[in-house]
Amino acid sequence: GENVEQHPSTLSVQEGDSAVIKCTYSDSASNYFPWYKQELGKRPQLIIDIRSNVGEKKDQRIAVTLNKTAKHFSLHITETQPEDSAVYFCAARIPGGGADGLTFGKGTHLIIQP
Amino acid sequence: DAGVTQSPTHLIKTRGQQVTLRCSPKSGHDTVSWYQQALGQGPQFIFQYYEEEERQRGNFPDRFSGHQFPNYSSELNVNALLLGDSALYLCASSLRQGAFGYTFGSGTRLTVV
Questions:
Q1: Which end of chain B has fewer CB atoms at under 10 Å, N or C?
Q2: How close, in Å, is residue B6 to chain A by CA atoms?
Q3: Strands A108-113 and A10-14
Q4: Taking CB atoms and an 8 Å cutoff, what residues of chain A touch B55?
């Protein structure tokens, strides 16, 4: 099955700086890569996603890049703000044959220092 | 527009007991997936239901079973509870199997004592 590795487990950055979280996946058939933000005690919320036919996607301060050859994808947050503090999870999905479940990384605790 | 709703929000059970968790998908969604999230870990896929059938299953024992009803709502049943089953159980809904964009509920916090 699919395996997703996520690094780092904890990331502390100064407010206003950029943050980068990286994930690798094992199955080249994976075609969908979402990123979720989970605040303490709350549900995971989709913040951005990318499909395998796209190399990069941006949404205001958030961007995701995908390198299919190397099987890794990254989340980039620019001009970080205190409300960006949360746990971020990457995930990957293998399509077809009823295989719809997402495989998640272990998460990155992002801390924004004032 | 109601999102994904789960009940109950919290539950305490004794080892060996059985539990049923419930999920109502987001309006317009017809596919429901269940995930187990242990403390400090990412969610782990349990199984997915579409058209009232289990379509895919993660690496979970048969003690974990489910059901989907004609109105697309779903139940997760866990038998013979173990201490290790203590976790946040998340339900995610989407529109049809293979779609992009999953919406998560707030989860049920299960504590087994």
A1: N
A2: 11
A3: parallel
A4: 98, 100
Kindly tell me the sign of the dihedral angle through the C-alpha atoms of A35, A68, A24, A78.
negative
Distance from CA of A89 to the nearest CA of B (A): 7
User: Given an 8 Å threshold on Cβ–Cβ distance, is B104 in contact with A45?
Assistant: yes
Distances in whole angstroms, Cα of residue A60 to Cα of each of A64, A72, A95, A113 = 11, 22, 28, 21
Model pLDDT for residues B38-97, shown as the tens digit of each residue? 999 999 999 999 999 998 888 899 999 999 999 999 999 999 999 999 999 999 999 876
CA A114 from centre of chain: 23
DSSP code, position B26: P
Q: Is A106 on the interface with B (CB under 8 A)?
A: yes
Q: Looking at this protein, which amino acid is placed at residue A56?
A: E
Helix, strand and coil percent figures for chain A, each rounded to 5 = 5, 55, 40
pLDDT higher than 70, residue B2: no
Interface touch B102/A46, C-beta < 8 Å = yes
What pLDDT band is residue B37 in, cutting at 50, 70 and 90?
very high
